[in-house]
Design goal:
- By secondary structure, this protein is an alpha+beta fold.
- Helices cover 50% and strands 18% of the residues.
- The longest helix has 44 residues.
- The radius of gyration is 34 Å and the shape is elongated.
Length: 440
């Protein structure tokens, strides 16, 4: 029997028992819809998380520390290694890292405690440095005002909640001057050993140019937890006294510029691991969020697996309806089967016919199920965004249906339908044509 004739006959047979086959097809559609809806949720949540992290630039970031202070931060303990022989994380190390291939930027993590004076009132707050690349950070999408006009501008950005403490209407702070008092680290010139230093209370006036609603870098970096931000070049000139500076200066002396942590910006996230390995060879400790996201990806893989299993249960139930429909078709069409076999149709031809009918119902149910699952996702996503809007949160897309999921869902529905047709097809093929022709 030719494939075209087989398909034509299968479609006609499906049309003959419209109500029963329609109900079976709807059952398959409901199963596919639940599968698509479940997996779309998992994929959507993973896509949303990756999108947010990618926009924060965290995948292109490698944090570098000195192994002198952070021993065994990223490796197993080694009794033979002498930590005091590891190089300091100083300006020389910074220049070496800047020369590495695929490195776009190397900046220190600068965060310190300070006092902010505005309108005659003083407020304690953490201050931090932001590099020029932070302008492209996702957190700057809601920036009110403007970013720093230059790398050395005497300007600051203020986090919105803190800005409201200074000025009830936060945006009114833009264009105003604030005074920042901080502890400045200074080397003493009268110490023959060159190891002396002093801490001086210093103040400086800055112009507020922007208000940040969200924490920069998705709140994933230490400097994100500050409330007032300077350009990195300005913060370095200020020589802010940081928490770990005393320990560093006791080892290297105040004349040496030693960093607690350097943040390395890589040109592409695919190069982060390569840069990280190169820095490790320089005997520095490293950490990147790619290390942490390995566990996140593992979690989503397991999560998607469970969603797929639960979503497939409805399709498994629908497969029983296919078996029932085709078994009834065998009983109703015994004479037809007997005539086909009497005219020369083989057992394989009869099996192919029932497989084709099962596949037709599976394909129709798969397409309808994908459309139904997509529609369910859109409705739920819209409802969720209404709730987010009422709670003053930005809208999000929690559902994502990639093309591969559409094709896989339809193919899976067809495969399950064909497997469900194994028993009815085998039963139909075993019919004796003489007995079938006698059947009333």
């Amino acid at each position: 029997m030719k494939s075209y004739d087989l398909l034509d006959l299968a479609v006609r047979n499906v049309r003959n028992s419209r109500l029963r086959n329609l109900l079976t097809t709807v059952g398959i559609a409901v199963g596919v819809a639940s599968l698509v809806a479940m997996l779309s949720l998992g994929i959507g949540l993973q896509t949303l998380a990756n999108k947010r992290l990618k926009k924060s630039g965290i995948f292109e970031t490698v944090f570098v520390t000195s192994r002198t202070d952070f021993r065994n931060a990223d490796r197993q303990p080694n009794e033979e290694e002498k930590p005091e022989e590891n190089p300091p994380l100083d300006d020389n190390a910074r220049r070496q890292i800047e020369k590495l291939p695929n490195v776009a930027e190397v900046v220190p993590e600068i965060r310190a405690m300070g006092e902010i004076e505005y309108a005659g009132k003083t407020h304690a707050s953490f201050v931090a440095a932001l590099p020029p690349s932070a302008k492209d950070d996702d957190g700057m999408a809601s920036l009110k005002g403007s970013f720093f006009s230059s790398a050395n501008a005497n300007e600051v950005l203020v986090q919105q909640d803190f800005a409201k403490r200074l000025e009830p209407t936060a945006t009114n702070l833009i264009g105003k001057d604030i005074t920042v008092r901080y502890a400045e680290r200074k080397a003493t010139t009268d110490d023959p050993s060159g190891s002396g230093f002093s801490i001086t209370r210093t103040e400086r006036t800055f112009r507020v140019v922007g208000i940040i609603e969200e924490e920069p870098f998705g709140g994933m970096r230490m400097i994100s937890r500050a409330r007032v931000f300077f350009p990195t070049a300005v913060a370095e000139q200020m020589n802010l006294m940081q928490m770990a500076d005393t320990q560093q200066m006791m080892k290297a002396g105040p004349q040496s510029k030693v960093y607690t942590m350097l943040t390395v910006k890589v040109i592409n996230s695919t190069k982060a691991e390569e840069v990280q390995d190169a820095i490790k060879k320089m005997k520095f400790g490293t950490y990147s969020f790619l290390d942490a996201t390995k566990n996140v990806r593992r979690f989503f893989a397991i999560f998607d697996g469970f969603l797929g299993i639960f979503g497939s249960l409805a399709l498994a139930v629908a497969s029983l309806a296919i078996v029932n429909t085709l078994v009834m078709a065998v009983l109703e069409r015994r004479r037809e089967i007997g005539i086909m076999k009497a005219l020369g149709a083989s057992d394989i031809d009869v099996k192919k016919l029932f497989f084709a009918e099962a596949a037709a119902m599976g394909a129709a149910g798969g397409v309808l199920g994908v459309l139904l699952g997509w529609g369910m996702g859109r409705v739920i996503n819209a409802g969720t965004n209404v709730w987010l809007a009422r709670n003053k949160f930005p809208p999000e897309n929690f559902w994502y249906v990639p093309w591969w999921l559409v094709l896989a869902a339809i193919a899976f529905a067809i495969a399950v339908s064909i497997l469900s047709g194994l028993y009815p097809a085998s039963r139909a093929a075993k019919l004796d044509p003489v007995q079938a022709l006698r059947y009333e």
